[in-house]
Predict the 3D structure of the following.
Amino acid sequence: MHVTSREFGSNARAAVADANLRQSLATMKTGFRARRAEAVAALPEFEALRDAGKAIKDHTLTHLDHYLERFEAKVTESGGHVHWAGDAEAACRTVIGICRAHGARLVTKGKSMVTEEIGLNAALEKNDIDSVETDLGEYIIQLRKEQPSHIIAPAIHVRKAEVADLFREHHLEFDAGRPLDEPRALLDEARTVLRERFLSADVGITGANMLVAETGSAVIVTNEGNADLTQLLPRVHVVVASIDKVVPALDDAATILRLLARSATGQVMSTYTTLATGPRRADDADGPEHFHVVLVDNGRSRLLGSPFQDVLRCIRCAACINHCPIYGAVGGHAYGSVYPGPIGSVLTPALSSVEEAGSLPNASTLCGRCEAVCPMKIPLPRMLRQWREEEVDRNLTPESARQALGLWAFAARRPAVYRFGTAMAGRLLRLMAGRRGRVRRLPFAGAWTRVRDLPAPEPGGSFMSRYKSGKEQ
Amino acid sequence: MPPAAETADTTAPHVALFVTCLADLFRPSAAFAALRLLEQAGCRVTVPPRQTCCGQPAFTSGDRDAARDQAQHMVEALEAEMVDYVVAPSGSCASHIRNHYPALLRTHPDPEMPKRARHLARKTYELTAFLVDVLGWTDVTARLDATVTYHDTCSGLRELGIHAQPRALLAKVQGLELREVSAPEECCGFGGAFAVKYPDISGSMVSDKVKDIEATGASLVLGGDMGCLLNIAGMLKRQGSTVQARHVAEVLAGATDGPAIGEDPDSR
């Protein structure tokens, strides 16, 4: 997976200073959060559903080989083909192979995070196959040549006026003077353009929200219906899905669907929920002639049995992202990974390396809100901390931080040394504060005082010294 | 004040006060207020002399070995076997002992250590939760004529479920009006080392928090964790706000005569 997470610090700094971005993020936050809260409050059994969803995924991950093979057997039985891809390159190669076999020139795509992860669009382009994203947000960022900045609202960082400019630049077949101020006008124009692509595409590629082992079905939910047109109209339907998407039975899929939309957008159900099972049968009115599923591992099987296995329960609802104060401050692009927010900070080092993505797990206050809203109860803060432990184990933490911590650890176990250190620190900070109650600029830890003052210790010494000498004030 | 031994009521709960490193260094008056509150609630309070820090700096930095050694030091220092309870004026430190010490010390060369860690974890509480949930005590006698708001700190709220307890106690303070912020579950941006590792993000978060606090019209923000309070007070001061910040124990103990956090020492 291509990541640029090493630049998180400087990206974040720029993002925080970007007023437009802050406004987009503020709107996003309040909207998603309020709607989820409403949906959860309206469903008394939501907590019980979370437990049920977690149990389904835990069971499936324990028997992943069994359910994947069962899924494969069912797909084959229904006339489809399953392809196993160990890594991103193998997955792209497989998809391109299918496209070539059918002489495809134009591919439509439903929104899919795993195809972002494996860089499928770039691979298709390199092989002279045109691919068009059909989810409006994805279509916008494809035109902008950007990565998604949010896993369910990929163009959340783009403002309406920017979309209008973008459409004028790319949709040259329309009258240059047309009005594009209203969201409706933008939608209508995108629909007109995309409708033509839907009808002329040779291959439709979608992701999958779940794969059902019992029936060999791929479940996909959208609010735009674009995935349906993507998978029903072309001759070939290719599902690209990661191996953690499989669930045992339709009942399990139903349980998880009840959690998914509520956690994501606060909807009871997404507008469209579609199950694709094999190619079109003799008496089907429509559907693709060929049905392929590419199962992508790309580092996931490595997580089985590791402290990070629980992250494979993720259903990509984005509740953790929507409630993350860090994401809310910097947006998705700062992360340098297609997966931003808490889930991204846990998943990115797992799918790339802790060397490349190590700054992400550190960019968290461990406030715990992500875990509190996760429908799958993934212990994200615990895993963020565990990545930090990996960093320490591999000596990747900066020397200065290591020295400071070493000094602290030495003193904290020796009360006499610690009291001396506290007294010195207290005196020094009081000296720097002067007659004031706060320090405006620290020579060390200047990062603290760059943005805020540091309240100085109260005069009179530490609690322990005062208590010992019997002086309260 | 007569020596503790003479007034010792053997039926009174014996509490060890865990001062916490930030209160010890930055805000002794918050720890004295906690001590006074516990005594008002009928406890016999000891301050174990070898206590230092709970070890979160190491734990959240990923230095598990240092976190484990520090946990061991604190298990020994807090003399858990000698007291009925350990109480800290901090949700974050109390949560660290309660939720993480048993795991940190699960395997240890000293076969007694895992048991001692579990024992300590079970009897450690955050101050307001201890007063309300364990003692069932809300007989606050303090008075403060002020409009205040309460900042729920993340570890207290989500790891220990502290929400109703400080409010139940504040409701007994005469003259006090409590107004809630619009986004009470939002982190203030402290996060220990996070505040200096990512000052821009931290600054953006605490600036939002301060805006929310100011919008309540309160003249005072209270909280149960010194880390968050140093962050919030530091931003209030930087922005020249007139809103003051105090540890909730100070208000509950009626100890609001001295300067608020970050206020000039001779301002009163």
Notes: The first strand of chain A starts at residue 81 and ends at 85. Chain A touches chain B through 69 residues (CB under 8 Å). The longest helix of chain A spans residues 19-41.
